[in-house]
Hints:
- With 232 residues, the chain is mainly alpha-helical.
- The protein has three domains: 2-59, Up-down Bundle (Methane Monooxygenase Hydroxylase, Chain G, domain 1), CATH 1.20.58; 71-96 and 178-232; 102-174, no CATH class.
- The chain is built from seven helices and two strands; from the N terminus they run H-H-H-H-H-H-E-E-H.
- Helix 4 (73-95) runs antiparallel to helix 7 and helix 5 (106-121) packs across helix 6.
Amino acid sequence: VIIALQERAMGLSRPHIPYRNSRMTSVLRDSLGGNCRTVMVATINSESGQLDEFAMRVALVRNVVALNEEMDPSLVIRRLKADIRDLKDEIRMLKGGAEERGPLTPDELRRLNEQIEAFCADASSDASLNLGGSMMHVKAAFDLFKQLVQRGGLVGPNGAVRMLTGPGSGGEQNQGGNAADLAEQVKKLRLQVTQRDNEINILVGMLKRRDAAAASASNGLPPPGPNLGPGP
């Protein structure tokens, strides 16, 4: 077993490892060339020549350690879709341009105000405020933040008044900048969206093949062949 593992570690073709040749190697199968970290201590023995040779062979065995974790394809698809939505919002914000609609309705302003108050009241570091990537919502949010500051800020959990913005920080941001840099950012974001779409297509194909294999197994039919899906 040690010789076979040594030859495999040296790059030689050794598809079969005879772990069942002895009870010790059968019990230590996962520790010898498996998914683990193994430490071998060679102690003193009367046959020092064989001990040295055995220790040198064991030292050449290489284990490849990988995390024993399987990702649920449905959860990965959900995360990738959320990433695509965020990237599209960022592209829309970078492109700017006029809004193809009228001003925010009172109901939209009320919901936005509730989101801002919940965001300011949340003291955790994971608090986030999703404005949907619309400059109209961003400007309205800055106006609402300004109104909160003018009313004296918000009362924190310890009873102290927290100011939402400091002096001179303002609520306006420079939306200009280099047009070439913005175009390059938009190009990169579009490429990321395309890559996420391809990953979703691959995961959807895996789910379909898994369902088809399960249905074929229940019906006693051979599983269907692999479907490579659309190219990148």
